[in-house]
Write the structure tokens for this entry.
Amino acid sequence: MMPLAQMAEAVLRTAEGREKTALSRRLAAQWQAARAAGNAPPIGRADPPLHPARPDAPELLSPRDVPRRRPGTPEGRVALLHAVAHIELNAVDLHWDVIARFAHVPMPMGFYDDWVKAADEESKHFNLMADCLEELGSQYGALPAHAGMWRAAEDTRDDLMGRLAVVPMVLEARGLDVTPGMIEVFRRAKADSAVAALETIYAEEVAHVAYGSKWFHFLCGRHDEDPKERFHALVGQYFHGGLKPPFNEEKRAEAGIPPDFYWPLAV
Ligand SMILES: [Fe+2]
Ligand SMILES: [Fe+2]
């Protein structure tokens, strides 16, 4: 079996969305089966691309050039699902990139288990959103999408603690804040499959934020640093703009992010 870091690189180098997620899920299942059987492959080393391979469509535009559509309309709901699909595809790459790019940092096996599991779930999330789009006669790639989603990964390519602070603990935590409102939009439209898909995403994202918090705290312990101070410093260094309330305090707490981590950074 391929070393884990090379599995991660293989996903990063696969462009088409459904192909990327199929490979991601297949490799995640291989890793999990090997771990359960007690014969996990080595972590190894990889040479991940600075930018993961992506399909030709969607066209990537700067956020201010992506047309805004009202969520109360069918077109608006398609645009919302498309935006979430784009986030999920990015998330597949973000999780495998942590494994590939930081393979040289010695970590307990549980770290890799968590990231593989999250990458597998992100792959499922992309497929769910792509299914919902297809059900509505659209597809991933039919609309323009935000460029610059890889910015956080690029900025933190040399800093695992920075990556954990910004990606799971800021960006994915933000997902916990906004997803309930999104579910409401689809509930009002009686779009049952979108509601079910978003509820799955919402439930599983809590664990992704928790993995970030757990391993961030682990690394703070390793380096004898105060987690809250380090978090504030890293978000200041790598995240452009403050954090937007309202915060989902309940789910953030469940994910191990206390209020004194995010409130001082609120704008
Ligand atoms: Fe997700
Ligand atoms: Fe996630």
